[in-house]
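Section handout 9: paired folding examples.
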Amino acid sequence: MPYQILIFEDNSRLRQSLEMLLNDEANFYVAASFPDCDNADKQVEKYNADIVVMDIDMPGIGGIAGVKKIKNTNPDVKVIMHTMFDDDNRIFDSICSGADGYMLKNTSPLQLINALQEVMTGGVPMSPFV
């Protein structure tokens, strides 16, 4: 049975591309995607998500606060930050908020898929720069 994925990404083109990429994989199913994460905790419960792909810079509460909300109510859900920010503060804040991995948006599609598989087997995927 494929892992249920939710995507939180405000860039609609990237959100759609991620959906197409991940739905092409036998191990993943994108249950839903959203342009903000204001209700991320409720959406994770509603869709029974296993994995969340989370952008950092979004309207509303933003990805780092979104991770906190998810982990407070659904600590077993794996969250991978998928962002263009490679600065130490955002990386540190994301991990402290409960993120299970941190991948930069310039990561290849294959590396992203491998990171999602890795996080579900207990790994902590990070882009090489991180």
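Moving on to protein 2 of 2.
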Amino acid sequence: MAGVLYVVATPIGNLGDITLRALETLKTVDLIAAEDTRHTKKLLQHYGIETPLVSFHQHSGAGRIEQLVRRLQQGESIALVTDAGTPGISDPGGALVEAAHQAGVRVVPIPGASAVTAVLSVAGLPAHRFRFEGFPPRKAGARQRFFEALREVDAPVVLFESPHRLLATLQAAYDALGDCPVVVGRELTKHFEEVFRGTLREALAHWQATPPRGEFVIVLMPRADT
């Protein structure tokens, strides 16, 4: 009988934000496939978990996927984890999930922390529906076209961004969308957590005065009039 691939959400910062079910799963599976084994090892050590680790990231290649699927087909259970949050969301884990489905292996979600829902919960914006776009393009021209395509979106748009591209992203959004409302979550659930609410112009001024550090999640309201 084939094993099970568990897609396990892990904390986005605060180690206390892991579920009891996730801990039990990480303890009892045969193997944990982690985006960065060094990062995941800190979580496992914190909770006294000694399950073997293997790396699985965007550069792993087809060979590693085949290896993991073969083990699943032989009856082993594997937990898939990313560095933070839920695997497969702006994360290479989706390739292993697809391969497991194609091989007829059962895939089970172990839900938990998510930067997307965390920022929406404190944004104070109507979030009965929203649009998630992950990371904006890195190149200036593509980034500008990306934001121009959002002009008619009448729901919150959630983005991820790194600190060294935050200002360029906010500027591109301002150039394309005008001074629309924005919420910027920084280091969510961590010691230096910050939630900024205002307009894009105010956000630019804030982060120009305070050099961006940490991980960022952005919520835009392109059509604030609706």
